[in-house]
Amino acid sequence: MTRYVALLRGVNVGGITVRSADLAAMARDLGLADVRTVLASGNLTFSADEAPGPLQARIEAGLRDTFGYDAWIVLTTADHLDAVVAAYPFDPERDGHHPYVLFGSDPAVLDEIEEAAGSLRGADEQVARGDGVLYWECPKGSSTTTPVAKLVAKPRYKSTTTNRNLRTLRKLL
């Protein structure tokens, strides 16, 4: 069985509420094993003997049916997540800064964001490419207002990307 991590996009903000207990129940109803939710920001870990593509589609359909919203997730394995966390290229404890990882299910979208971020990023932001992710560091208190934050918040990236703080990712492992 493979250990997976599903990162839900856009829940518990903007009127879309997904309670952790309800999320876990939905996952169990889908036949997923070893289900665990982490924090209230749409993080689900579980085990399954299913290929990622069909599994992602099944979970997204389950979210739509259960919670009534146009659901998208980024699905990765626990092993991949562990490698992503270990490879964080900036000082994750840098005073006054947040360490983030932007996950993407479409490599072309990550390429596009990386290219645009190179010319947009603020003086105190850092962006670097990783394996299926972009690493991003920004000053505390500006994670929605920096040029890169505004770029990744564009509606066109909604279905293929989601962002998590490095500390949250560590809790998922």
Main sheet record: 4 strands, antiparallel
The number of distinct β-strands equals 8
Distance between the termini: 16 Å
What is the 3D shape?
globular
CATH architecture of the largest domain: 2-Layer Sandwich
- Count of structural domains: 2
Question: What does the secondary structure layout of this molecule look like, with pairings?
Answer:
Blueprint lengths: L1 E7 L11 H10 L3 E5 L5 E6 L3 H16 L5 E5 H9 L10 E8 L2 H14 L5 E4 L3 E7 L7 H6 L8 E5 H7 L1
Helix pairs in contact: 3-6
Structure, described:
The chain is globular, with a radius of gyration of 16 Å. It folds into two domains: 79 residues, SP0830-like domains (Alpha-Beta Plaits, 2-Layer Sandwich); 86 residues, 2-Layer Sandwich (Alpha-Beta Plaits). It is an alpha+beta fold. The longest helix has 16 residues. The two termini are 16 Å apart. Helix 3 packs antiparallel against helix 6. The strands form two sheets. It has a four-stranded antiparallel sheet with strand order 2-3-1-4. The protein has a four-stranded antiparallel sheet with strand order 6-7-5-8. It contains six helices and eight strands, in the order E-H-E-E-H-E-H-E-H-E-E-H-E-H.
List descriptors.
single chain, alpha+beta, Alpha-Beta Plaits, four-stranded antiparallel sheet, about 170 residues
In short:
By secondary structure, the chain is an alpha+beta fold. Helices cover 36% and strands 27% of the residues. It has helices at 20-29, 52-67, 78-86, 107-120, 147-152, 166-172; strands at 2-8, 33-37, 43-48, 73-77, 97-104, 126-129, 133-139, 161-165.
